[in-house]
Amino acid sequence: RKNLPKPLLAIPYATRAMSAASSDSAEIATGSKRPFDPSLADPSPPSKLQRFSQSDISPADADSGGEAGAESEAMAGARLSRTQRYLVAVEYDGTRFSGSQQQPNQRTVVGVLKEAFHKFIGQPVSIFCSSRTDAGVHALSNVCHVDVERISKRKPGEVLPPHDPEVVKCAVNHFLHKNEGDIMVTDVRCVAPDFHARYKALERT
């Protein structure tokens, strides 16, 4: 330490002094003249939670708030982890379709797919396609994504692990073939929750 330049020794000392001064600012404002004690210095800034004393929060509120918060976070995390987003590629003959986007009182690609998924998992879903096709237009591989939460049909309310992509493909095709047989799922893959069939598309032909 004796061999080090004086400015390098002064820098850490000044830092400690400034930290101590910030923690004792309240006492200086009230006119306290007691000497500075380095052992009482707290370099970390006071937390916002320290503005409320423990007596301001009743034990009942604290317990119920903590438990409710933890429970809601756990439920949200479990629900999120059980919802699987699938990438679904479909092939269809557009002769009897009024386009791909859902329309009231019209037979559309999205409408038929939503009906098949509803019959498969027992609850409504939202389907987003990468491209729109007009009435009468065919598609070899129009890609869409859908979020599926697998809920037990024997025990309503019980959430089960996600379906395997091959199971989704076979089950949805089963209900599609019962419709008109002019649309089928050619591929199903699991994708990340933030994947979007429309905005993540790299090419359209």
From TrEMBL:
GO biological process terms on file: tRNA pseudouridine synthesis
Keywords: Isomerase, tRNA processing
UniProt enzyme class: isomerase
Low complexity bias locations: 60-76
GO molecular-function terms, A-Z: RNA binding; tRNA pseudouridine(38-40) synthase activity
EC number: 5.4.99.12
InterPro entries attached to this UniProt entry: PsdUridine_synth_cat_dom_sf (IPR020103), PsdUridine_synth_TruA (IPR001406), PsdUridine_synth_TruA_a/b_dom (IPR020097), TruA/RsuA/RluB/E/F_N (IPR020094)
Catalytic activity entry: uridine(38/39/40) in tRNA = pseudouridine(38/39/40) in tRNA
Residue intervals of the Pseudouridine synthase I TruA alpha/beta domain: 89-167
Family, per entry: Belongs to the tRNA pseudouridine synthase TruA family.
Name of the molecule in the record: tRNA pseudouridine synthase
Organism encoding this protein: Aegilops tauschii subsp. strangulata
